[in-house]
Design a protein that fits this description.
- There is one protein chain.
- The protein is of the alpha/beta class.
- The protein has one domain: Rossmann fold.
- Helix 7 crosses helix 10.
- The longest helix is centred in the C-terminal third of the chain and has 16 residues.
- The radius of gyration is 19 Å and the shape is elongated.
């Protein structure tokens, strides 16, 4: 498995230019984050007849799960900036008969009236947006008072790998957090952002994803792209970068590799 290069925040905001790569990455993350994804859907407390919106729905698998929960009398809207990903989501689900609509849209300016939905979900989306606070304000606007919001966002500064030069790792993490991702630590800001957006009963849970295989970790956490970027910035030497990568490959061959990163699960209620 190779690094999913070119999936920085700028690329996600223009995902149609590399929709095939984006789709493959999303499918990998469907497996990596299966439990966290389930929890974000469960946190909405949906049921028959309810309605929900998901921003940044990608291939729409969680929107599909939400639609199954609300049943034929409910309504779910999956929204994404990518026409190509939306087209794939529609093609995959159109024969299922679910109360589900996918459409292209801007998370910063939702084309729905106030109080349109009972709940809203977003996963790994706020990290890439130009203005996460504005997107949250829009979700609060379109969700009814008493309705629920659910989020999952990473904290890229938490990326760790064992048994290698710590200074090189810090440079790799810095490049991912500060250069590749627009809001690389937005997970730790979710409580503040939700309260400032007018939410109450804000519940925050920190979770970790652990990787015992170097190829998967490198793909999910953009280790090669971040290492090359840190070297190009002059933060690490070529020799140090080569040694860091070679040691991780050696750990993989010996069954010794360990890497992990953290993220934030957040749930809240609109006042």
């Amino acid at each position: 498995m190779s690094d999913f290069k070119g999936l920085d925040s700028a690329s996600w905001r223009a995902a149609d230019a590399s929709a095939d790569v984006a789709a493959r990455y999303l499918e990998v993350m469907t497996k990596v984050l299966a439990e966290q994804k389930r929890q974000t859907v469960d946190n909405l407390h949906l049921g028959p007849g309810k309605s929900a919106i998901e921003i940044g729905c990608g291939l729409g698998r969680e929107s599909e799960a939400m639609a199954a929960q609300v049943g034929p009398t409910g309504r779910v809207v999956g929204l994404d900036a990518s026409r190509e990903l939306i087209a794939q989501a529609i093609a995959r689900t159109q024969s299922l008969g679910l109360p589900l609509v996918y459409q292209v849209g801007d998370a910063h300016a939702l084309d729905f009236p106030d109080n349109s939905f009972d709940g809203a979900r977003a996963e790994r989306v706020l990290q890439h947006l130009a203005d996460p606070a504005q997107a949250l304000a829009e979700l609060v606007r379109v969700v009814k008072p008493g309705g629920r919001l659910s989020f999952l966002e990473p904290d890229w500064e938490s990326v760790s790998v064992g048994g290698v030069d710590v200074e090189v790792t810090r440079a790799v993490v810095r490049y991912k957090t500060d250069v590749l991702v627009t809001n690389g630590t937005v997970g730790r800001d979710l409580r503040r952002l939700l309260v400032e957006a007018g939410c109450v009963d804000v519940a925050i849970e920190m979770g970790a994803v652990t990787f015992g295989q170097f190829p998967l970790a490198a793909s999910v956490m953009s280790l090669r792209q971040s290492l090359d970027g840190a070297r190009e910035k002059g933060w690490v030497t070529q020799t140090a970068a080569d040694a860091w990568w070679a040691e991780l490959e050696e750990q993989e061959r010996g069954g010794k590799f360990l890497g992990y990163m953290c993220g934030t699960l957040a749930a809240a209620r609109v006042a």
